[in-house]
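User: Please predict structures.

Assistant: First:
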Amino acid sequence: MRLYDGLHHKDVADWHKDLALLTDSLRLDNFTELLCDTLAKVVNFQTVICMTYKKGHAPISIYDNYSPERAKDVIDAYIKGVYVLDPFYTAVMNDITPGVHRLVEMAPDSFQESDYYQQYYRKLTSVEDEVGIFIDLSNDVTLIISLCRWSGLETLPRRERNVLNSIFPMIRSLCREFWRLQASQYVDKLNQNSPVEMAFNTFGDGLLTDREQQIIGLILQGHSSKSVASTLGITPGTVKVHRKNIYTRLKISTQSQLFSQFLNHLAVQASHI
């Protein structure tokens, strides 16, 4: 079997050696690191993050290749609350089919104009393109292996996407077996990691209506007024009226101020965890 057109016999031999090494490492603490090293041999990426998600709980990171200092800025900030604005997180909560998915394909229509993208995603990570390998570890836990390509590296070409699709069944099988053998060291932390996704439902309590809280959540995730209207089954004009009322009641005038207030709310939520 060829991973992609033009694969030589030596490449096939090396790939099977890597699979054997991974199989032998399923009980070792460095399995995820070895897995990501193996992926780096067939797909180009500069950073990788392995994150597990369970509905009703905040995610936990099980591996990344950031420096400790950089990880504190990127990973810690994500886990403390901004993950609720991440399209990958939303996809998991919406029961996305396991497989290989690019962020750009599932992000809302105005994601790149959102403050989450501008102030967190691009500012902290410098990511140009991101592809996620979504693996259902169990009935209620999903692993996402995020492969990130920075500025200067072309967006994921079709050939590399085909490689990931072709090896996905094997990677999924290995990861599910890894989870069966090693889940005990992660499950307690995952179960104890309280959620902050209720932030959308509690942001502006006493000031905003339930509908306005819904609209805020969609806006912060990167939906345009037209997309918000389509999602909620209302007109764009109604969205604009709600948006004006939201700004008035929160005493703000820009979406950036809305984002800042929401981050402050997340911080308060996280402090109660």
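Second:
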Amino acid sequence: MIDTQLIMPTEESIQLAAQLLQRGQLVGFPTETVYGLGANALDPEAALSIFAAKGRPADNPLIVHVAEPEQLEPLCHVNSTALKLMDVFCPGPLTMILPKKEIVPMEVTAGLNSVAVRIPSHPVARAMLKAC
């Protein structure tokens, strides 16, 4: 049985969500478009638990969310086009597909050499990502 908690987005609960993510647990969180199910994108087993929880096909890559554009550099190769798009649309509902770096597990990208990345504008998502 999975222990599911529904909690209001307070400073304490945002810190709890960050701790859960760091421990490989799953956390549901709002974005500006949908509620997402999040895991630590650098933890292959945590990423696989999203596929299992959602019944998501293993060939359907996940989106990696970050709080700030600077956090993309360790994860992927950011080109000039991506920088221009981020200047206009980020934070916000823009998902970019960029060449991944080795740190991003293949489980996250469904075996692809690219990674989907996004900088959400929702205040709860941003607070949680900053706390991570």
